[in-house]
Design goal:
By secondary structure, this protein is mostly helical. It has a domain of about 210 residues: MetI-like fold, CATH 1.10.3720.10. Strands 1-6 form a two-stranded antiparallel sheet.
């Protein structure tokens, strides 16, 4: 009797494993199909892309879409502007001049891709650092108003960015940062979700470890860098991926803050290359394929921390 029951349980587990594998394979195909369609579509001709019958694989690998992407516009590879320095005294103004350093001219898509990577990586690094410090303070420090501050952070998570768009725009203009990459980076740095995420991870660290560091004479910065930060590293990895993807895909903020050709991002730049009466889908797919490469690389680098962070949060709940 026990043998038959064990055999029945083994068959159920095997059937469940097969069913789970089939479901996972189907979901993987569904999720990866858009990426496959974009990459193969970037090498198709216009006739194959606009064909009424789907062309699942290009008959000839056509590089024309990438050639148009690289030759349609140009921009300097980099430019550094040192602002004009003015000294005023006794009613007189002395202009000490300014300096502009411009790099070689390259396809605008290369400059747009560099802008997007710089924007996303800069937002990721600054956000992870500030969110980790804020999460540590909110989780392990006792001070008046901590509950109010954390409540404001949670409420800010539900606040749409469109509500504070006009104040942000005026603030960036007052700081002379409008139409620069920094105008997109700084509004993302105070991301409430990052503070909330790392605060939850920091609460899982025993308070006795912080007190032991204080007894041993370690300062606040030493305690944070040597004890807290290594232990919340999975949460920082998850925050890094979320911040990078959020910054990369924040088309609305890029559209409002960036105007000049040299400062555009890859998604915004490709959108400006479209005509009013026609859409070049091959060009769009080539740009989307180019823009997807950095996101895939970042996810592969931080995948271990991302999955570990998600599982730790689930177990902790």
């Amino acid at each position: 009797m026990n043998t038959n029951r064990l055999d029945a349980n083994a068959k159920k587990k095997k059937a469940y494993s097969i069913f789970s594998a089939v479901v996972v394979i189907i979901l993987a195909i569904l999720f990866t199909f858009p990426l496959y369609w974009i990459i193969t579509g970037s090498f198709k001709t216009g006739a194959e892309i606009n064909s009424t019958v789907p062309v699942w694989f290009p008959s000839e690998w056509d590089m024309g879409n990438y050639q148009r992407l690289m030759t349609k516009r140009t921009a300097p590879l980099f430019d550094m502007n040192i602002p004009l320095i003015s000294v005023s005294a006794f009613g007189y103004t002395l202009n000490l001049g300014g300096l502009t350093i411009t790099g070689p001219t390259v396809p605008a898509a290369i400059r747009w891709l560099i802008n997007t990577v710089f924007m996303s990586v800069g937002s990721m690094l600054i956000t992870c650092l500030t969110a980790a410090m804020a999460g540590y303070v909110l989780a392990k420090k006792r001070f008046w108003g901590k509950t109010i501050i954390f409540s404001l952070v949670v409420c800010a998570m539900a606040l749409p960015k469109q509500v504070i768009l006009i104040p942000l725009l005026r603030e960036m203009s007052a700081l002379n940062l409008y139409d620069t990459i920094w105008a997109v980076i700084f509004p993302i740095v105070g991301w409430p979700f990052g503070v909330f995420l790392l605060k939850q991870f920091a609460e899982g660290i025993p308070t006795e470890m912080v007190e032991a560091c204080r007894i041993d004479g370690a300062g606040e910065w030493r305690t944070f860098t040597d004890v807290m930060f290594p232990m919340i590293k999975p949460g920082v990895g998850a925050c890094a991926i979320f911040t990078f993807i959020n910054s990369w895909n924040d088309y609305f903020m890029q559209l409002i803050m960036l105007t000049s050709n040299k400062n555009l991002t890859i998604s915004l730049g490709i959108a400006t290359m479209q005509g009013e009466s026609s859409t070049d889908y091959g060009l769009l797919m080539a740009g989307a394929a180019l823009a997807s490469v950095p996101i895939i690389i970042v996810f592969l680098i931080f995948q271990k921390y991302f999955t570990k962070g998600i599982t730790m949060g689930a177990v902790k709940g």
